[in-house]
């Protein structure tokens, strides 16, 4: 699903964000990416959804060679990757329903299907009754649920979540995690960067620890922590 | 593109205008204001042009025949003049008519001077008044008439007059006025372009986030651009429609008041028929193009994510 072979990323200002990363993430895996701020977690995530390009090395997602991808093809690769952010990134002037439907309009799905599928995912995240609400009328947890619904509405093979619980209280966070686990259970690969020790330690999954751009630990059913 | 996608783009473009209410209003106003100034100058330029045309069309050539030229010769000269392709109208003015015209134009003062002249001892020559299609070619035509005289051994024409010197000066002035008008209008159009593009750029910077989210969920650049394109066109139509409505209404008012209040002046304003279509057409086209151009150029900047 996601394969990195000797992947390096150096930014224009000379910062080396990732060095010699070798990782293979299989279909249907659930992977935590942990590490201190500035360690390269975000770069790792951005490479997967082609916000950044590796400076060196081989990176393929879903069979696409990300490094050699033509500009024109990028949108089509992203359609197979759902992205979730700490700050939700919903369009403020669209309702919950419209925010989710938007991701389907973009790939030119038929209108009738859009309506049915959008209601389906709204139901899945437990917000059917808030379909017409604007993001400002929703709580943080609810906004993140809408963002998750948007990420999964097109049935992507991978979900990339960059600190999805970063702005949420523990109780809301565990609700979000249940939802992600459910999505993973249905067959979607999930890569999630997090600082949340409780979550990593209670919901045991594979852990990738990144420090100074290096993967210092890759452990199945691992614990939180990045000191070697 | 699927037809449902086309409908979606148009719908989204329209909705965006409403959703970004104040920003749309700002862009529309900036288009309206710039185009209004442009429109006022266009009206001015159109009127100056009309005035220049009027002055120019009053220019004519007078051909004076030799005193005592016979009827056959006069007709022969008339035929030759009519054969010049640039000539529009040739009007024969007999010496009797000439005397009457002179009496009329000199009025009371001339009465004494012209007293005693009758049709029998009329000192004036027979003449032709020539109008040409293009006033600017008047000296060229006058030369051709002179050439007719040169070719005829009896030299039937006494003189050819068209206000030499004065006419050339008039043309220099009317040409200068036209060029200045064109220059000002072009300058204002460029100024309007900058003003409008800045406003639209602001509205789009405010929506950078929106564009980045669209890209994140896998929208193609074309898909992102279309609603902005339509939005720009709608804003352009809105802004220029307001301008055209205000301009045409005030101009129609101006024409009617000008007729009654300052009707003493011989200057005649261009009619609604003269200016209506050209004003409406050019302002609408410029407005729409500005709107589209402004939004697509600004979007392009944020598409390279």
Report a brief summary of the structure:
The complex is a heterodimer of chains A (228) and B (305). Chain A has 228 residues and is α/β, with parallel strands linked by helices.
Q: Can you put this structure into words, describing what you see?
A:
The complex is a heterodimer of chains A (228) and B (305). With 228 residues, chain A is α/β, with parallel strands linked by helices. Chain A has a single domain (2-219), classed as Rossmann fold. Chain A is 32% helix and 26% strand. Chain A contains seven helices and ten strands. Chain A has helices spanning 41-48, 74-78, 96-106, 111-124, 140-152, 170-185, 197-202, and strands spanning 2-10, 16-25, 30-34, 56-61, 64-65, 81-85, 158-162, 189-193, 206-211, 214-219. In chain A, the strands form two sheets. Chain A has a six-stranded mixed β-sheet, with helices on both faces. In chain A, a hairpin with a 2-residue loop joins strand 4 (56-61) and strand 5 (64-65). Chain A is globular and about 45 Å long. Chain A starts with a strand and ends in a 9-residue tail after the last strand. With 305 residues, chain B is an alpha+beta fold. Chain B folds into two domains: 3-55 and 169-303, no CATH class; 60-162, Alpha-Beta Plaits, CATH 3.30.70.3040. Chain B starts with a helix and ends with a helix. The relative contact order of chain B is 0.17. Classes of the chains: A alpha/beta (228), B alpha+beta (305). Chain A binds chain B through residues 49, 51, 72, 75-79, 83, 89-91, 93, 102-103, 105-108, 110-111, 150, 154, and chain B through 2, 4-5, 8, 19, 209-210, 212-221, 223, 305.
Topology pattern of chain A, helix = H, strand = E:
EEEHEEHEHHHEHEHEE
**Strand fraction of chain B:** 5-15%
Please tell me how large the radius of gyration of chain B is. 31 Å
Distance between the termini of chain B: 23 Å
Number of domains of chain B: 2
Which structural class is indicated by helix and strand composition of chain B?
alpha+beta
- What is the CATH topology assignment of chain A? Rossmann fold
